[in-house]
Amino acid sequence: MKALLINGSPREGSNTGVLLQHASDVLEREGIECEIQELRQNTIHGCIGCAACRKSRNAECPAHKDDFGPILAKMIAADIIITGSPVYFGSATPELMALLDRAGYVSRGNGNLFSRKVGGPLAVARRAGHNFTYAQQLYWFTINDMIVPGSTYWNIGFGSAAGSVSEDEEGIRTIERFAANCAWVAHKVAG
Ligand SMILES: Cc1cc2nc3c(=O)[nH]c(=O)nc-3n(C[C@H](O)[C@H](O)[C@H](O)COP(=O)(O)O)c2cc1C
Question: 26 CB under 6 A from ligand 1?
Fold first, then answer.
């Protein structure tokens, strides 16, 4: 079983990455092979709505020559997908949303490639905007026929300087329980 954890932060040593690492550690302990995909090392342009992906029927996006294809392939191969974003002016980052827009459009044009995969989002901010950024990502999971487990709080963390989310004990506990629930559900789904 595989999990792909997608980091939408453009910052090195990001708080989002810290939380995703906690989730990854829990999943690994549950016997799940994990990869954290950093988007900051990649170029992913926004969807241009040409619908070429729907005509190609190849689960690819023919519109752009960028780093989208290999990441989409990893998403398709994963049993669990977790996304994470810092809050930027109340929203998820454009890096993450560009990936989710295109992956979602290709998926929906090719018979729902993410059906019944397990996963969900998390968000990190200095002060405010977590809930919207969490929900913004959540919409992507639930329109793509995916299964999103809960936790003991919403999947959010507080931090400003890079790495400072490590001091948010409740945030980390929430993310770890969410990851444990992802593993629990994914094992049940796999039968
Ligand atoms: C462009 C930009 C916009 C931001 N907007 C918000 C915001 O709306 N609310 C907030 O609480 N923090 C905001 N922040 C702070 C970040 O969310 C915070 O530093 C977070 O920990 C960054 O996570 P990262 O290390 O994973 O990138 C913003 C930071 C940047 C660079």
Answer: no
